[in-house]
Amino acid sequence: MPTRNPFTNPDTRSAVEGPFAREEVVLANRNHGIALEMLRHDVTPAGLHYLLNHFDIPYVSEADAAAWTLSIGGTVERSISIPLAEIKALPAVTQRVTLECAGNGRGLFEPRWPSMPWMREAVGTAEWTGTPLRAVLDRAGLKPETIDISFHGIDSGFDKSNEHEYGRSLKPDLARDENVLLVWAMNGQPLLPQHGFPLRMIVPGWYGMASVKWLNRIEARATPYQGYQQVGTYHFRQKEGEQGTPITTMRVKSLMVPPGIPDWYSRKRLVEKGPVTIYGRAWSGGGTAIARVEVSINGVWRDAELDPPAGRFAWRGWRLAWDATPGGYDIACRATDVAGNTQPTEAIYDRGGFGNNSLHSIEVFVR
Amino acid sequence: MPTRNPFTNPDTRSAVEGPFAREEVVLANRNHGIALEMLRHDVTPAGLHYLLNHFDIPYVSEADAAAWTLSIGGTVERSISIPLAEIKALPAVTQRVTLECAGNGRGLFEPRWPSMPWMREAVGTAEWTGTPLRAVLDRAGLKPETIDISFHGIDSGFDKSNEHEYGRSLKPDLARDENVLLVWAMNGQPLLPQHGFPLRMIVPGWYGMASVKWLNRIEARATPYQGYQQVGTYHFRQKEGEQGTPITTMRVKSLMVPPGIPDWYSRKRLVEKGPVTIYGRAWSGGGTAIARVEVSINGVWRDAELDPPAGRFAWRGWRLAWDATPGGYDIACRATDVAGNTQPTEAIYDRGGFGNNSLHSIEVFVR
Fold first, then answer.
1. Which domains does chain A have, with CATH numbers?
2. Cβ proximity of B217 and B152 under 8 Å
3. What is the pLDDT at residue A6?
4. CA distance to partner chain B, nearest, from residue A176 (Å)
5. Separation CA B143–CA B74 (nearest Å)
6. SS3 helix, strand, coil % of chain B, rounded to 5?
7. Percentage of residues in chain A with pLDDT exceeding 70?
8. What distances in angstroms separate CA A197 from CA A70, A183, A213, B51, one per listed residue?
9. What residues 44-63 of chain B have any CB closer than 8 A to a CB of chain A?
10. Is-contact B106 B78, C-beta < 8 A?
11. Who among A25, A35, A46 is closest to B47 (CB)?
12. Does the bond joining B326 to the residue before it have cis omega, within 30 degrees of 0?
């Protein structure tokens, strides 16, 4: 048994190499990525969208949901509390949005920060139904001195001895962007508990940490929000102790459906010789469109065929026809967006394991 | 690149201690357990039910599903192929069933077999809608010489150099039991891709490996089925090379909702002093009812209050009121079924990591 409050202990984590700690595996067992073969679906089916929750998933009963309110306070003209039913009565939009965890690829870094050990699978695309956040912000009326707005869920816990409810902030201009939504449905169904039932945010084009779940409180601020999830983590950092750079929009990236069939344990791939279609998805951040996807087969790069765009904030499908002949192959894919951003061959090192958009490569053996 | 077929390499795995291999983490990232706090739900919401797939999740389009057939051959009076639509027109039943992965708890063994590194979370309860399997078996007519019946999914791959489609068998009496179902819906919705869309089996009371997903072929047999998933794995074994004992029904077990709030990384728990309700679930195998659940707080055992039964094959809820005073506590729970089976304090060692039903214990600090 713990003999004193273990949460006030200093965090003793440091970057590691090699095998994975039990704590990392516990996080991997409760959170999950998309199974890469399910990239075939334009919209990720329920339960296959990546999931990363810092604290416990709140238990919200139907009665709790019926009584749910969203409060808006701070530097506003009118502090208000809006019942969920009123929010759901506002004009609704449905938007297809690709979300990726900022820590996707953390497990591929050496050394690696001990946390959720994502390889490449922390992504998904859903159709979110809700109303623009600005509808409720404008009801409260942001005062001119407002320079930051924080958003808070009911999920709480500790991180590095900091006790807090999960919270993140956005600058007023972004918070009032028509694409930033308060949502109550995902793929045409009520939000699942693990995705924020009954109310969450969707900040399209940003990594997932901005899309606060189980949202019940908004605070307009005359000074920058200093919550742990805003300033203590989700920063690009090269070394311990530096403040670093805040993480915002997603970096350009592509993933492919592993061709062929797997070995259970190693996940190595066997492909039958003959015509093979390699499928994948590509996306970038901030609403920037994908311009090009290239595929390398044993170092020879070819352009993939792009599917029609599926929305400003949704991943774009791509495919490449390959006449596979027996032997061993390394297959890789690389996306470039219309702003000219392209994926790096080697990951850009980050101490916390954030923003890894290095090339996805797969070994296959064709028989 | 691989220079020869890597799937014919001998499997070099052996039992290990200590940290976890990258391959184990990759499996943990694609599969997932229930988040233990979601044990609060009588029926596990979509995406939170445990998921263990050996090979890739098949991509089955709506058109593929519309053309889906189930063939029944071997030692039958009439080899037949039944369209899915005909199966769905048979009399439907809905049954609440708790399923647990046979490998649940593998990651807690020392030494540990390298595979999906479950701690305690590989369980879930769903409401499955389908028709008794015997309806289709009787349509084909089992010949008297039938002593085994194998069931095959379309998911395929390698395990220890064995290439196969996932397959399992049942003895004819069990296969014709009214509770063994062919199902097409889960919690009132079409099956999700990862749970076997468009057709799977549910074998209540057994560990999950018996409930074959993506089912498209049944073979009645005059000799025992020798498929890899039947004889190569899913056996209790003490040492390498022995045949061991086939794994069948679930062992008695209980889990609790961790009280309080967590630390993000360590998942240690902080509880506020005062009245606390500890919630949990208990189940046993083969339809055997739960008789008792006890909870230990720092070694003092008390009986939990049992919720009403929720069906012969569904877990049973339980709760214990605790007046928490500041300090450190070890909390554990133990279930006993009506046949007198009870959970062991120490896990019964198994080389492959199967059947671990040792006590669930949690450290908490009350402030």
1. 6-246 (3.90.420.10), 253-366 (2.60.40.650)
2. yes
3. 66
4. 31
5. 9
6. 15, 40, 45
7. 98
8. 13, 9, 8, 21
9. 45-49, 51, 53-57, 59
10. no
11. A46
12. no
Residue whose tokens read 């000219």: A340
The pLDDT tens digits for A297-346 are 999 999 999 999 999 999 999 999 999 999 999 999 999 999 999 999 99
Nearest CA in chain A to B51: A47
CB A96 within 8 A of CB A125: yes
Mean pLDDT of the region B321-342:
98
| ipTM value | 0.97
Is the Cα torsion angle A139, A143, A144, A145 positive or negative in sign?
negative
Averaged pLDDT, A17-43: 97
- For residue A12, pLDDT over 80 is answered with no
CA distance A196 to A184: 8
Nearest to A151 by CA among A92, A202, A185: A202
Report the 10 Å Cβ neighbour count for A138: 12
Size of chain A in residues: 367
How far apart are the C-alpha atoms of A129 and A196, rounded to whole Å? 13
Average pLDDT over residues B270-296: 98
> Looking at A194-203, B9-18, B138-147, B336-345, which range is the least confident one?
B9-18
Which residues on chain B are in Cβ contact (under 8 Å) with A158?
Answer: 261-264, 270
Distance CA A130, CA A133 (A): 9
Test B24 with A20 for CB contact under 8 angstroms. Answer: yes
Place of tokens 């057709």: B199
Residue of A nearest to B27 (CA): A265
pLDDT number for residue A149: 98
Return residues 298-357 of B near A (CB < 8 Å). Answer: 298, 327-330
Per-residue pLDDT averaged across B31-58, rounded?
Answer: 98
Confidence of residue A241 (pLDDT cuts 50, 70, 90): confident
DSSP string covering A100-168: E-TTTTGGGSSSB-SS----S--EEEEEEEEEEHHHHHHHH-B-TT--EEEEEEEEEEEETTEEEEEEE
Which is higher by pLDDT, A10 or B150? B150
Q: Is A37 helix (H, G, I), strand (E, B) or coil?
A: helix
Residues of A in contact with B21 (CB under 8 A): 19-20
| Residue B103: Cβ within 10 Å count | 26
Chain A nearest-CA distance from B217, in A, is 19
User: Is the pTM higher than 0.95?
Assistant: yes
Q: Is B110 on the interface with A (CB under 8 A)?
A: no
Confidence grade of residue B25 (pLDDT, cut at 50, 70, 90):
very high
Specify the pLDDT at position A93.
Answer: 98
Provide the token pair at B330: 């070890």
Side by side, which strands form the sheet with A305-306? A253-256, A274-283, A316-324, A305-306
Examine the pLDDT at B8 and tell me if it is beyond 90. Answer: no
Residue among B227, B183, B226, B194 at smallest CA distance from B95: B183
